[in-house]
Amino acid sequence: MPITKLCILDCDGTLVDSQQPIIEAMSMAFRRQGLDEPEPATVKRLVGLPLADAVAALLDDRSDDLVKALSDGYRTAYGDLRRANGALEPLFPGMIVALDALQSNGWRLAIATGKSKRGVLATLRHHDLVERFESIQTPDSAAGKPAPDMVFRAIEETGADASATVVVGDTAYDMLMAANAGVAGLGVAWGYHHADELNASGAAAVIERVDQLASHADMLTEITDIDQAPPDRTLAAR
Q1: pTM of the predicted structure, to 2 decimals
Q2: Same domain as 154, residue 58
């Protein structure tokens, strides 16, 4: 029986370059609450985490009410920016060709992102990509990165084999999620965390160019560790 290969891609910083609207929306949310705007570099480093976790990391006062108010404000601001500029999150150059190459090589595709389900669907629809992905995982229905739950759900939904599953992402959170799920992590150097951080977080490889994606995904499925115990695939959040 043939093994089903699954490539799980992050969205922000991996598929699309969304740092500008993310930083702008977060700044707007803080301003509307009468707070000092966070440093753009700090916001950029938190891209990939569930929104509430990212907001809490920017605050000294992490009260539930303030985290919720800022999270809601961020969603509103991001929606305003999206309506004002439809081309808010451009695809990284060469990404369509890279996805074509993956699918031509027999890979099934999934998304695991810190975006909300509504947000990631809006992004994918804008680029006519929704039908490419057989599983779309978000913190709306599973524990966010670096927990392994989104990987486990994607594997379950697609019938893939964990030994033939690769997580592709630009942040340490992606690589830690892959490691926690017991699957290979492929880091991309065109996103928001440095290659050294990706390697330190467990990346099996880090690529510099989008056109390397399909070939390196194929190579990583051949990496096995016979001494590694199978991961516990109990989902923390159903």
Answers
A1: 0.87
A2: no
